[in-house]
């Protein structure tokens, strides 16, 4: 089970270094465990690229199996009668303002049911395989297989190198970005390539492995930019990157989704979300980066 837990943590974190930090292990022990697991299974589970690590096609399937085994193992070790925590899967920046509010108020009112957030590459798949009880997703399209509740809306900001001429602007428009290339992560992006019909220099576009790779690319490449929700900008602050409000861009809506056949505790948490977020319009400050001006990022419910 130790090898499975290490493997799943690497997949969740996208890095052996971060997995070692999260588990409190050394990187050599992480590497050795993965070598032993791959030798035992006679397959390649991970591909290494720089500081990152991503599952192979076989590794993605095995990660789902490993998560189910770990969940069953952990549940078996729970004290008799103890309710396992509700697990909410997310891909990037799970602590958006609305979730901070929900977790704080839930823990103040409910002592018997704990909530855990777990970063996973594919939160919806975590629902499909019963690894997670709910998923936190952005730009969700209604699907009859799931129930959903919109809980947060926030503006988009542009990320550019601190050395770029645009870095001194108070705000930018799509016209300002026409000569620039777009940097997007390979999965989980909330920014479409076509930029809602606005122009950019597609010849300069870059695809990155993850958010950290996006930041490195933007910081070290001329005339490129990224677009991200304001809360992600707050979470991934970097001295070589400046985040600037983007005019005319659609806001990003975040939703909680869950299966109708889930645990009864899920319905209880969802009702808490409705009661906590729907009656109020909460004005939340923008990221603390001085380039990002204050803006309303308000929880919403529909």
UniProtKB/TrEMBL annotation:
Q: Give UniProt keywords alphabetically.
A: DNA-binding, Transcription, Transcription regulation
Q: Which SUPFAM superfamilies match?
A: Periplasmic binding protein-like II, Winged helix' DNA-binding domain
Q: Does the keyword Phosphoprotein apply?
A: no
Taxonomically, which superkingdom?
Bacteria
The record's annotation in Pfam families points to: HTH_1, LysR_substrate
List the PROSITE patterns hit by this protein, alphabetically: HTH_LYSR (PS50931)
Record's family?
A: Belongs to the LysR transcriptional regulatory family.
Q: What is this protein called in UniProt?
A: LysR family transcriptional regulator
Report the source organism. Streptomyces microflavus (Streptomyces lipmanii)
